[in-house]
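yo, 5-methyltetrahydropteroyltriglutamate-- homocysteine methyltransferase-like is done. seq:
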Amino acid sequence: MASHVVGYPRMGPKRELKFALESFWDGKSSAADLEKVAADLRSSIWKQMADTGIKYIPSNTFSYYDQVLDTTAMLGAVPPRYGWNGGEIGFDTYFSMARGNASVPAMEMTKWFDTNYHYIVPELGPEVKFSYASHKAVNEYKEAKALGVDTVPILVGPVSYLLLSKPAKGVGKAFSLLSLLDKILPIYKEVVCELKAAGASWIQFDEPTLVMDLDSDRLQAFSQAYSALESTLSGLNVLIETYFADVPKEAYKVLTSLKGVTGFGFDLVRGTKTLDLIKGGFPTGKYLFAGVVDGRNIWANDLASSLSTLQGLEAIVGKDKLVVSTSCSLQHTAVDLVNEPKLDKEIKSWLAFAAQKVVEVNALAKALAGQKDEEFFSANAAAQASRKSSPRVTNEAVQKAAAALKGSDHRRATNVSARLDAQQKKLNLPVLPTTTIGSFPQTMELRRVRREYKAKKMSEDEYVAAIKEEIKKVVQLQEELDIDVLVHGEPERNDMVEYFGEQLSGFAFTANGWVQSYGSRCVKPPIIYGDVSRPKPMTVFWSTTAQSMTSRPMKGMLTGPVTILNWSFVRNDQPRFETCYQIALAIKDEVEDLEKAGINVIQIDEAALREGLPLRKSEHTFYLDWAVHSFRITNCGVKDTTQIHTHMCYSHFNDIIHSIIDMDADVITIENSRSDEKLLSVFREGVRYGAGIGPGVYDIHSPRIPSTEEIADRINKMLAVLETNILWVNPDCGLKTRKYAEVKPALSNMVAAAKLLRTQL
Ligand code: GLN
Ligand code: ZN
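structure:
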């Protein structure tokens, strides 16, 4: 009975690691305290998997911050600015790289493939002196062994490690990261030797970059690397694990011919085409680790269907060579359903978090071996059936309305420049109009108010009065600052997706469904389980209340459909675009109600539009088409005089600029100040942008207060590239995480800069 788990969440069922880390960072607990929490988490996970019956249990899947940073530590590739002097890397150096310290900023962080997890990007150059500087993988293997659990240690594979790195600052363009392969392999060999000596019989190399679009040089690097490792690896079983998509045909050929490799792991949930490749040929005598249990979602597996897939595969690779596995590390799903006592019973029966997925993997493996747990399978079948037929999932009117959208286009009737003229007549804004992105500082007091209201410790009347009071303060402040287009400050919102999810039907919420985003940070995505509709207006009351307090235009503030989709756990029983269209229709209703209530400017945030971009280029067009279409659906019905804004907090737009233009918003505000003008270069290169655009003039992620001159200088640089009449002046993103002591002077300088430049035009 062969079962395997690619990796497991580190945070703990109640975010124990988060709290231990943060307390250690704050100097409130010792390194030993932190190590104790970590060791307890690891041992409980190993025991749980062993008790369940999992054969190939992973180790080194734990991390104090990030597995790529762990690999950087293993290789001793510490950038010189952290002043590391050799020896085993300790918490000091490790956390300085992760988070920066008083004198040096952190290393860059970026998204791990198309997940919401972020890794620390290695900075490499020809000068890096690699050395074996973290024995974590070996230590964890030994630690598990001492607890009586023989594990499969996991390493980020050498080629993926290099492909996920970036050249260090100042390294010449001619430098190729892959040229470092020969320098890092000796360290990998040392690790492998130690693992062998410690008694390991399997080792797993994660090489997820194999699912990307790789040219032949890059593919070649895999053959080179594993040939070089072959003799060291001999005597060990070697698994190369891929995930997040199917492995392209060429990569599959390279992968399955790697020397010294015993098994190959594939994501069979997202990588459905891989199945055909396997059917077309799989090397004899090798193990297939079949990732049929979804590590990216929270749905219970359809065990009957997985079993039949597995039986098909068994016929190809042989009974003793098939291993049931997860599609990827379970770190991308929530930890344990046990901690959701309040979740509706029926919905709960449709779900499986990491702990439950481990049980599913095991049940499938047992069934393949002829020991099917009939009771477990029939309970699962009943839950699958109830999910298919439950009236809470299906809303026929919504299905029909969403189906009717497909194939047809939705655009506002008038073109953007005519619309902007009509809006200007109504709004009468100065040139270089100023605005903010939506949220204002969320004080402790505000959080207390929301918490007490939610816990029913505060009456509705008291709550409304408190929020109104806050809105009034925010409105007054903006008037004093002389900002042109105001916001209400979003004091009633805890989170820009949760706020809407709670009011839309088809969404469920967990108490502990946390997923690591980076370091100690976790997110708790809502679960979209059914057809989405909007029973009643969601923001109209607050927006009209705010508008009644000022004669200046007040922006209605909504989260767009693509962002709601990308930041939720999404249904797997219909394509993503269908769910997105449903959300778009719900937001459309809200947009139209806001317009009817007299709100003339409406911002529809699409902070996460780029995030959903598929890993492979061949799939980009399809995604962008439906994502942009969904956005347009939300506002295609408004009058010319209603100004639609959108906001995106991501600076890499250049590759999707045409899709952004195609969103056909009247004004877009975007993050810009941290991206070294990358954004502006698009326009410099001649892309014409006719709509209003507000590239952020200062970074809200830092407490630093920008001076008027500095902001004016930024605006001037923009004016050199963009036409004066389309430029807006605004910060990079919402101000929710900042303090008033920072926000007031920063916005005051921003407005002063805009006014200064107006006099010079
Ligand atoms: N309107 C939101 C805010 O200001 C936008 C946040 C975001 O883009 N992430 O907080
Ligand atoms: Zn933003």
